[in-house]
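Progress report, Aim 2. The chain analyzed during this reporting quarter is listed below.
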Amino acid sequence: MSKVMSSNLGYPRIGENREWKKVLEQYWSHKVDAESFEKQMENIRLEHVKKQRDQGVDLIPLGDFSLYDHVLDTAVMFGVVPERFDYQGGKVPLDTYFDIARGTKDSPASEMTKWFNTNYHYIVPEFSGFAPELVENRPLAFYREAKEKLGIKGKPVIIGPFTFVKLSKGYDEKDENALVEKLVPLYAQVLKELQDEGVEWVQMDEPILCTSISKQKVERFKEIYGTLKQAAPHVKVILQTYFDRLDHYKEVTSIPVDGIGMDFIHDRGENWEALRKSGFPEDKILAAGVVDGRNIWRRNLVDAHSFVSSLADYVAKDRLIIQPASSLLHVPVTVRQEDALDKVLKKGMSFADEKLKEVALLAKALGEGVGTVEKELEESVNSIAALHESAGSTRDVLEEGSSNVRRISPYSIRRKVQPKLPLLPTTTIGSFPQTSEVRRQRMKWRKGEIGDDVYRQFIRGEIKRWIDIQEEVGLDVLVHGEFERTDMVEFFGGKLDGFQFTTFGWVQSYGSRCVKPPIIYRDVNFIKPMTVDETVYAQSLTDKPVKGMLTGPITILNWSFVREDLSRYTVANQIARSLRKEIESLEEQGIRMIQVDEPALREGLPLKKERWDEYLQAAVHSFKLATSSVQNETQIHTHMCYSDFEDIMEAISDLDADVISIETSRSHGELINIFEESTYDKGIGLGVYDIHSPRIPECEEIITHIKRSLKVLDPTQFWINPDCGLKTRGIAETISSLKVMVEAAEHVRSELLVKNE
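Predicted structure tokens for the chain:
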């Protein structure tokens, strides 16, 4: 028998009760000073390290913890700070770090976009201003902290140079290799200092290797990592990949590192086939990702043990490390506190802590023999079987209406009969500030301290208040404000059959923003209208159009933890049919504008380009299945968040929404370039100010955004809106920002009308 090591790639930073979020927001609101803030964060960080040790993890990641975002951490480690911020070199000050992420009155925040095909947002590094230099060896600091205070010699985690550069902006693509070259000495210095400290293992994250990457690029990996190996020959570097298969398996596994981390969950079996066909280098460690780091279902440990045993036929056990397939950043912390869940469902789930136990069990079973943990392995099988039995049988997916996914008439005809609005109509994306009083009343209602009628009247009061505010501000198309909703996916999941919710199942989305993804565990069905009461009431208060607000099927799918016994596309279509009934209910009540948001459509795009068409066709089908039954007079809107939209412009057009709004304020110029090269013939709103920053935009700033857009878009198709919902903003800043937006719209509108007279 031999010891098989277990490892983890990353741990949720938010804490079991979101204590990380609370400390972070206390600092931002000046309730704690910097010294107290950093001490509290240190305590949280060390507690997470101890928890992983207690779960039996041998190689504990260090440096995955962040005060905001791990990509931003890498940028400030190398002094990569945008020129617009007051930075004079050296270690980046704490407040400058947060300014880059959140913006200031005078300096817009850096762009934010999705981390590969997940719902986690990272801050996009900008290569401008100072040349990169190592201003702080963060992995070394975290290693020393854990060693000195806990006696734990962990595994520093670093985003590798190729992935870091590829996720950045501010350089021409032809200069990519030169930029990597500039960073190599800095990475070499980091590794050399870690080696001098006695570090044994380092995890270099290069998930870019799981995208559609060229063989020539892999050759560059060989050169660069060869240089890094020479700089620190005694540090064992694991080149960690995740989220998909490796292209060019033979070439990647010959990169001069000590270990290769491979995802055997999301690879569709292709990593395994490549390994079986070509073998695995005898001079390397295989860090095998065999527990899903992105979903919350328990692993069938009998099947998993069979698989890792098969791996051991090709890779000696002393060269195997058992680990999750990706960082556990994407799942909640622990199932332990979920006492309100059905017992069968709870036993079928596995969050971060439970996944680490699974990893440790598999390592023990492989190293010491299955008999040492046979009971635990069998128990996982029984729990999963009970879960599937409780979900019931799946209904026929080809229900009536599934084939009807086309509007009655094309957009050119529809637009003539839809609501008449001023040139450059102004609106918002949907939500308004959720004050502490809104949250307090919702909690009282949930606890039964106030009845349904009292709560309904409170929500109606908030709706009326904000309808009046929107009228006063001068918006052209209004919304009811979504005060009854905690989250745009959770709300609908709570009203559709087939969903379940946790009490503490929070996951970080961006910054301190945490979401609690619903769990889809059986067939999704429409029960009764979900949004009609609030929308119709709001419309009764104004002569201006009020949009009905729904979340689209692909976003509900991508932002939920989805059952694994059906294809994701089957589940998406179940959701779409349910939303179709809701849309028809709104239309029957006279609502003529209905927004079906798909902010997560782009983020679900597979990492491999050859799979894009399949995904986009399925996504478009689901959206049209939900929206296609309305009359020509009903205007369908949709909204999308930060993404590389050039990848999906054809699919966006195929959605056939009458109006699309896109979250672009942090990357406005880049998106405008897309419309200089391609034509879009429907209504479109490009977000003209950033709602993720507390700063109030200047009127001239918005006017500049609008005029830049009108160079490539027809004024008759252009809408003006913030770049996302306003739920997280304060009341005063929301009203002030919207007034500035309307003022800017009226200014440009007047200029256009004068010009056309």
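The first strand starts at residue 5 and ends at 6. The chain is about 40% helix and 10% strand. These observations will guide the mutagenesis work planned for the next reporting period.
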